[in-house]
Write a structure and sequence with these properties.
single chain; 454 residues; alpha+beta; Jelly Rolls; 5-stranded antiparallel beta sheet; 23 strands; globular
């Protein structure tokens, strides 16, 4: 009898212990869903770039172990900047407490918990991460893509028909065929201005008409986008499906899409200018994947209701003369620019192709002081991030920004198309680039006192 009572007591304790343990472990409904909603579901939801949805427990349950592995390794959410240098408003990293919650949830087997504890899911505008756009501008054709082969950059013109200047508060570029679109750069060509009847007086040129920075190593090879044309006898004839660069030019770039990054929301008081009557030009880099496809990409724009106090400008830092020797596991390429007026740095977006592995940006100020602006020790071609500063960096006139990128052109790089070949700058993914998009604003000089104030 005593033995039977002892066994019954042990069973009772075991029965009681299970709910206590389950209650002490984090649950999806109460603890994990808020983390996923805040940090993950902008990509991990139906119709977005991620391979699976995490919007519900049913969606997340098959991926519990994978979530734990990726979070503990730091590969999800994707963020590649060294936290020792700079603070960024779009930092995707989870906090230590959030990582611990997910780790304990995974260790407990990924329990759902009480569905009544679920927070309200985030609301997304159908098809858009930035909210409902004020305007959507779309390619004017379904562009046919072959199942294989190299596709040159293609250019598509989209008239805006805006009768007055607009200020872009947010944009989102959405590819029509995600499997084929490598990148999109959206340019805005303003309407042609009539030439002055008389000679141009260059002595009265205003400072804002000059280039906003002075950059070295920008010369691109002939035949590549942005470089001089090849001699006529070396040019490939255009085919019926080619959409070449417009002869009227491109204008300034206003938006873009690269893997992992297709949106930008400017903070209040800042915006990018879109001139009245501009024509948008989509520069499309397509890759083939063994299946024929069509693409009709688009851009959504949200406009500022008032002109910004701080217009945001864009420029490029690049080294078009890069040369990576065959088999080199640690090839280094440098580029630099000199700031030619007082400015503020708002963001940097590093870009290489599949051999790029690391970046670092350093500012040398006029007083000789040096500062690392951004370090990306683990660059990832599949997640190209625009690093947007929490507070823009003051760059006095004469500041030099030096960029260094490292590449792995060796057989150890599993993404390397051919480690036996030297590599130069080129448009296609099997070639390489050393390119940085830079967003800046010009510090306005203090207003001159009027006669009554002197």
């Amino acid at each position: 009898m005593m033995k039977q009572s002892f066994v019954m007591a042990v069973l009772a304790l075991g029965t009681l212990a299970a709910p206590v343990y389950a209650q002490s472990a984090p649950t999806y409904s109460k603890d994990v869903a808020p983390i996923l909603f805040k940090n993950c579901t902008n990509c991990h939801r139906p119709g977005e770039i991620a391979p699976m949805s995490l919007m519900s427990f049913k969606d997340a349950r098959p991926w519990v172990r994978s979530i734990g592995t990726r979070v503990s390794a730091g590969s999800m959410p994707p963020w590649h900047a060294d936290p020792a240098h700079g603070e960024f408003i779009n930092d995707r990293r989870l906090s230590a407490a959030e990582k611990d919650t997910i780790a304990r949830w995974v260790a407990a087997g990924g329990p759902e918990g009480n569905p009544k504890d679920m927070p309200a899911p985030p609301t997304y505008t159908d098809g858009w991460n930035i909210g409902t756009p004020d305007a959507v501008l779309t390619m004017q054709e379904d562009y046919a893509l072959p199942e294989k082969g190299v596709v040159n950059y293609q250019y598509f013109e989209i008239p805006t028909n805006f009768t007055e200047d607009r200020w872009i508060q947010a944009y989102e570029v959405r590819p029509g065929s995600r499997a084929n679109v490598h990148h999109v750069i959206v340019y805005a060509r303003p309407p042609a201005q009539p030439r002055p009847a008389g000679p141009v007086n260059t002595a009265n040129r205003q400072p804002q008409e000059q280039p906003i920075v002075m950059a070295a190593n920008m010369e691109l090879p002939a035949g590549q986008t942005g470089g001089p044309e090849l001699p006529e006898d070396q040019r490939k004839p255009l085919g019926p499906n080619d959409r070449p660069m417009p002869k009227l030019g491109l204008g300034p770039s206003i938006a873009g899409f690269v893997p992992g990054n297709g949106t930008r929301v400017y903070r209040p008081g800042t915006a990018g200018r879109l001139a009245a009557g501009s024509t948008l030009i989509f520069q499309m880099h397509y890759t083939t994947n063994g299946k024929p496809a069509t693409d009709r990409s688009k851009i959504g724009l949200i406009f500022s209701k008032t002109p910004p106090t701080t217009p945001i400008l864009g420029t490029v830092l690049a080294n078009g003369q890069l040369h990576l020797k065959a088999g080199d596991p640690n090839a280094r390429v440098d580029a630099e620019m000199t700031i030619n007026r007082d400015m503020r740095l708002w963001s940097l977006i590093p870009h290489t192709h599949v051999r790029g592995k690391r970046w670092i940006y350093e500012a040398t100020y006029p007083d000789g002081r040096k500062e690392v602006l951004l370090s990306v020790p683990n660059y990832d071609f599949d997640w190209q991030t625009e690093y947007i500063y929490k507070e823009p960096v003051k760059l006095p006139k004469g500041t030099v920004i030096h960029a260094t990128a490292w590449y792995d052109n060796s057989p150890a790089n599993k993404s390397n198309p051919d480690p036996s070949k030297d590599v130069w700058w080129g448009d296609q993914t099997f070639e390489e680039m050393m390119f940085t998009g830079v967003s800046l604003s010009i510090d306005q000089p203090p207003a001159r006192p009027t006669a009554g104030q002197q």
